[in-house]
Amino acid sequence: MRFSKIKDNDIANGLGITMSLWTQGCPHHCRGCFNSETWDFNIEKEFTKDDLKYILDSIDKNKIKRDLSILGGEPLCSQNVEGVINLCKEFKKYYPDKKIYLWTGYTVENFNEIQKEILKYIDVLVDGKFEEDKKSLAIMLRGSSNQRVIDVNKSLKQNDIILYEIG
Ligand code: SF4
Questions:
Q1: How many structural domains compose the chain?
Q2: Which of 20, 31, 73, 161 is most buried, judging by how many CB atoms fall within 10 Å of its CB?
């Protein structure tokens, strides 16, 4: 898995404060993407054990309680998905009560078997490509209204897509 940055204190990508990780590389190339510098799979850096340790050791640093957000780029493309699953699995081992938010351009109904693995570890999934004609600044956690904010735990329990209740 490659990534471009880790932001310790993020208030724009989650509810409350999160530590946010931007994975590098995206195959979707949505028109109007606000983050096109994350498309290239060959730049930025490989996510290492030291980066994992940094997240695990720093998630509550300075006594600030944070959840974890994983954005892109595309966290669930074949180049990144296994690294992201490993990160989420390790994170939940140490912090089972913290939320993990994850953004993907894929829709959950079309996840392949490897991508489905991530559902065991994350709490909130924002799915779907960014669609410029549906862009809105008024909707929380999403860039365009076709995207969905999914409550993963409830969806798995009810075997249906249950939207996350915000606030
Ligand atoms: S999925 Fe996200 S990062 Fe990738 S092109 Fe679409 S908006 Fe940009």
A1: 1
A2: 73
